[in-house]
């Protein structure tokens, strides 16, 4: 690494770790590259793992599968050399990332209000969770599920409508990746529906399960994505210069694929399993209820997928066939309102090897029967910057699918 490049990395890293100035993405573009050959796939994988200058919004899957990559203006000519190699089909998918950020949210909003017409801050979400305890004292209790590196509480709620459902507990988590704002918005909307909806199907699943909701798994990164860098993905734990791990590595087959060992990569998983305070303390909390878990649902974005365990193998393990069959029915239910299409399948088969994820850890440790990871809207036109007017539609269709999942597994259990 030459002196100039070392200084540039230090400068950028210091801004990300220490800086207060809001990061802008003027003229940053998202390119969609589709590799034509095995050699092109390997070139992209090497680029993703070794170069922190390009932000891979979606992972490299294989020949014929598109990859979305955000490119800074000063890198466009170098990136054009990659495109012009002839190894890829390429198009500009988002012409100006900052323009999407500027138009993501309503121009006016009522601060402190959680009404799903806008994305909320961590303080607003946590204040709302606390208010539920006062509003529904017989049903809702506050849960401190963990503590972050910057000493923020990882707050959630436990919701109970009827006694005797302890062994039918549903755990829903989201915003493990900071920039995936739609995930916590969907989580809080579903929570609100379980408390307020008069719909027969919603009431049926609400009343026959105990519930845990943890809307923001990664509070430090989430706050930073609101205050400083909208596209921030990882935690805020500093390792070396630019190394701030993504809090996905929970311990099952740590670093056997999918995460990077490069500290500057967006997918750096940390130095060891449970290395981050958020994952360590939350995993300790989940362990206290793990034997009672009937379902574990994780919300992410984007790509419109319902992913099944495991991320380390394409083998159809445990109750894969039940998960797949029910997942297909759930995806059909999800599409009814707005026509949104989701794919269903094993993580490795639909995406890539991705070891150490929370769903895999829960499935492997506690043999939880119902385990799904959602990649919510959309398929790339907005990517992580989904407009706020899509929060409610995305949440509605997701709840429809969740109703189907729980009801269909009840049928399986009875048979």
Automatic annotation (TrEMBL):
Gene3D superfamilies membership: Metallocarboxypeptidase-like (3.30.70.340), Zn peptidases (3.40.630.10)
Main location: secreted
Keyword line: Carboxypeptidase, Disulfide bond, Hydrolase, Metal-binding, Metalloprotease, Protease, Secreted, Signal, Zinc
Signal peptide segment: 1-19
One GO term of the biological process aspect: proteolysis
InterPro entries given in the database record: CARBOXYPEPT_ZN_2, M14A-like_propep, M14A_act_pep, Peptidase_M14
Name of protein: Zinc carboxypeptidase A 1
């Amino acid at each position: 690494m030459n002196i100039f490049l070392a200084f540039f990395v230090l400068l950028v890293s210091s801004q990300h770790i220490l800086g207060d100035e809001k990061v802008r993405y003027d003229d940053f573009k998202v390119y969609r590259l589709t590799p034509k050959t095995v050699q092109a796939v390997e070139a992209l994988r090497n680029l993703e793992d070794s170069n922190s200058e390009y932000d891979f919004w979606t992972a490299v899957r294989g020949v014929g599968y598109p990859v979305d990559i955000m490119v800074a203006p000063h890198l466009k000519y170098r990136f054009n050399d990659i495109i012009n190699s002839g190894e890829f089909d390429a198009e500009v998918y988002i012409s100006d990332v900052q323009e999407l950020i500027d138009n993501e949210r309503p121009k006016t909003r009522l601060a402190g209000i959680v009404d799903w017409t806008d994305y909320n801050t961590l303080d607003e979400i946590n204040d709302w969770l606390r208010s539920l305890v006062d509003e529904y004292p017989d049903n809702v209790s506050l849960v401190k599920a963990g503590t972050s590196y910057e000493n923020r509480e990882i707050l959630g709620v436990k919701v109970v409508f009827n006694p005797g459902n302890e062994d039918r507990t549903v755990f829903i988590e989201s915003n493990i990746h900071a920039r995936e704002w739609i995930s916590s918005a969907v989580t809080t909307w579903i929570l609100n529906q379980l408390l307020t909806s008069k719909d027969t199907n919603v009431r049926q699943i609400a009343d026959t399960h105990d519930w845990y909701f943890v809307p923001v798994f990664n509070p430090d990164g989430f706050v930073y994505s609101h205050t400083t860098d909208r596209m921030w993905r990882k935690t805020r734990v500093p390792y070396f210069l630019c190394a701030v791990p993504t809090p996905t590595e929970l311990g099952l087959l740590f670093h056997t694929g999918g995460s990077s060992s490069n500290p500057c990569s967006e997918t750096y998983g940390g130095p060891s399993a449970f290395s981050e305070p958020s994952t360590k303390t939350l995993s300790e909390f989940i362990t206290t209820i793990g034997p009672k878990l009937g379902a574990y649902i994780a919300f992410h974005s984007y790509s419109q997928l319902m992913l099944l365990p495991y991320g380390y193998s394409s083998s159809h393990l445990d109750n894969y066939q039940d998960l797949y069959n029910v997942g297909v029915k759930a995806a059909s239910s999800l599409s009814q309102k707005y026509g949104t299409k989701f794919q269903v399948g094993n993580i490795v088969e639909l995406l890539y090897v991705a070891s150490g994820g929370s769903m895999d850890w829960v499935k492997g440790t506690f043999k939880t029967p119902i385990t799904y990871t959602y990649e919510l809207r959309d398929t790339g036109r907005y990517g992580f910057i989904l407009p706020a007017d899509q929060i409610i539609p995305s949440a509605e269709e997701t709840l429809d699918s969740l109703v189907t999942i729980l009801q269909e597994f009840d049928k399986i259990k009875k048979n």
